[in-house]
Specification:
368 residues; alpha+beta; Beta-lactamase; two-stranded antiparallel ribbon; 11 strands; 18% strand; globular
Length: 368
């Protein structure tokens, strides 16, 4: 009876050995791989325990089917990829410059009006300053927001007021933009002279500087705005209306014809000619020196002879530009309103210049 358990035990051991032998009955190469795999199993378990989550996630994503990975990608990337795959190049380029919110001019369809020079601006007016001949006219009677072109009237009034230009003026909380929440490097508490503020307002379109100039005008801001509108009326700018001195409000509006009138008058002021065409300016603010540059890069271009200029931009107005410049022996006043794209208004000025330079010499020199 004792033999049976021994026989059974030996039989079981023999069977186990046969099964193990059958499981390892592979080619030598495979046998080596299997032995290495078996030997590495404990190490793999140990490494898996210590591996951070991110590599594990990357391994899982590698193992996942391509379709599943695509579905797991962020929605924004998927949409961008789909857009790039489907949209033609010119459509993508146009989408890059079309604003999310339309300007007043675009909402009125003014940008759809054609002109011989294919200008990017919805509104354009070019006048010979000496003969008053209108060379180019496109929607010039449309009344639109004028953005920082407003500062040209602000500067004209400050210059004509003959206030002490060396008077110290401090930026206050009242000068902070609550309309568009635009940025400024002139912190509350900064003190500069009236001349410095005027320079920054006209050259670099500094909003707090322009607001401080109006706020410190005799009688205060209300008196200054009233004076702005009175001056516009005096100059015959019948379609112009101001509500503040910076241009941040879309309620500051005018026509291209009115702006041409303003440019002509402002060009007669030597101080405004100097400050608007200054390429750059430094001011001392505490222990710091702030460098400001002109918002119109054409003033640094030696091929241009610009006597006065001002740029402007808010969403409602689009990109705007007014200039007095000598082109091909003619003193021209140029007005461009509601242009899309940072450089479009400058491109329009260049197109006008090229066209005027191409005119017959007898026409160019004629003064009627």
């Amino acid at each position: 009876m004792q033999l049976l358990p021994r026989i059974a035990s030996r039989f079981l051991l023999a069977s186990a050995a046969l099964l193990l032998g059958a499981g390892l009955a592979l080619t030598p190469a495979h046998a080596g791989q299997s032995k290495r795999a078996v030997a590495k199993k404990p190490a793999k378990v140990e490494v898996a325990k210590r591996t951070p989550a991110k590599p594990a996630v990357r391994q899982a994503r590698k193992a996942a089917p391509a379709k599943a990975r695509h579905q797991a990608a962020p929605a924004r990337k998927t949409k961008v990829a789909a857009h790039r795959a489907k949209a033609p190049a010119h459509v993508a380029a146009a989408a890059a410059v079309v604003p999310a919110k339309l300007s007043f001019g675009h909402m009125a369809g003014l940008n759809k009006v054609d002109d011989p020079l294919d200008l990017a601006s919805s509104v354009a007016l070019v006048i010979d300053q000496d003969t008053k001949e209108v060379l180019i006219s496109k929607n010039d009677q449309a009344v639109l927001p004028i953005a920082s072109l407003t500062k040209l009237m602000t500067g004209l009034l400050i210059s004509e007021a003959h206030l002490p230009m060396d008077e110290q003026i401090t930026i206050t909380q009242a000068d902070v933009d609550t309309e568009k929440h635009s940025r400024s490097r002139l912190a509350v508490g900064t003190t500069l002279t009236r001349m410095e503020l005027l320079h920054l307002a006209l050259m670099s379109s500094e909003n707090r500087a322009a607001h401080a100039l109006g706020r410190t005008y005799p009688g205060g801001m209300d008196a200054f705005v009233a004076r702005m509108n009175a001056k516009a009326k005096l100059l015959g700018m019948a379609d112009t209306h101001y509500v503040e001195p910076t241009g941040l409000s879309s309620r500051n509006q005018a026509s291209a014809q009115d702006l041409a009138t303003l440019v002509n008058v402002a060009h007669g002021d030597a101080l405004l000619r100097e400050l608007t065409t200054s390429p750059g300016y430094e001011v001392e603010v505490g222990r710091r020196t702030l460098q400001y540059n002109n918002t119109n890069r054409l003033v640094k271009n030696p091929s241009w002879d610009i006597g006065l200029q001002k740029t402007g931009y808010i969403t409602e107005a689009g990109r705007c530009l007014v200039m007095q410049a000598e082109v091909a022996g003619r003193n021209l006043i140029m007005v461009f309103l509601d242009s899309v794209g940072t450089l479009s208004r400058l491109g329009d000025a260049q197109r006008v210049r090229s066209w005027v330079e191409s005119l017959p010499a007898m026409h160019v020199s004629g003064r009627g």
